[in-house]
């Protein structure tokens, strides 16, 4: 686990769409690095709508620079993730040529 989201998704499809949105915009993501409230360390946060966090690091990092590097690695990993097929999603039996 490299990141968590505070969002609650009703279905696996909603979660997948949220992940697809992050993956599609991976190159433009920016993070806010902040000190944790109740403890020692730093976390990265990707702000979402209305200033609420969309995604954040799954753990705190002891050093600010380590947190920055962790965010950069997250972006690289995110961009490399292939689209996944969810159970229950309709799969077309047609070939790409329409037959």
Outline of this structure?
The protein is an alpha+beta fold. It has helices spanning 12-24, 64-80, and strands spanning 3-4, 32-35, 42-47, 53-57.
Fraction in beta strands:
15-25%
Number of helices: 2
What average pLDDT do the residues reach? 81
N→C terminal distance: 41 Å
Poorly predicted residue ranges: 89-96
Helical proportion?
25-40%
Report the radius of gyration as a whole number of Å: 17 Å
Question: How are helices and strands ordered from N to C?
Answer: EHEEEH
Give me the side-by-side strand order of the main sheet: 1-4-3-2
Broad structural category: alpha+beta
Number of strands: 4
What gross morphology would you assign? globular
Major beta-sheet overview? 4 strands, antiparallel
Describe the structure.
This protein is of the alpha+beta class and 99 residues long. Helix content is 30%, strand content 17%. The protein is built from two helices and four strands; from the N terminus they run E-H-E-E-E-H. The protein has helices at 12-24, 64-80; strands at residues 3-4, 32-35, 42-47, 53-57. The protein has a four-stranded antiparallel β-sheet, covered by helices on one side. The protein is globular. 11% of the residues are buried. The model is unreliable at 89-96 (pLDDT under 50).
């Amino acid at each position: 686990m490299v990141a968590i989201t505070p969002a609650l998704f009703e279905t696996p499809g909603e979660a997948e769409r949220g992940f697809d949105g992050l993956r599609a915009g991976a190159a433009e993501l920016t993070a806010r690095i902040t000190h944790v409230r109740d403890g020692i360390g730093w976390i990265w946060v990707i702000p979402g709508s209305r200033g609420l966090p969309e995604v954040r690091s799954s753990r705190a990092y002891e050093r600010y620079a380590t947190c920055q590097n962790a965010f950069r690695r997250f972006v690289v990993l995110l961009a490399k993730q292939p689209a996944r097929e969810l159970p229950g999603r309709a799969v077309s039996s047609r070939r790409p040529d329409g037959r």
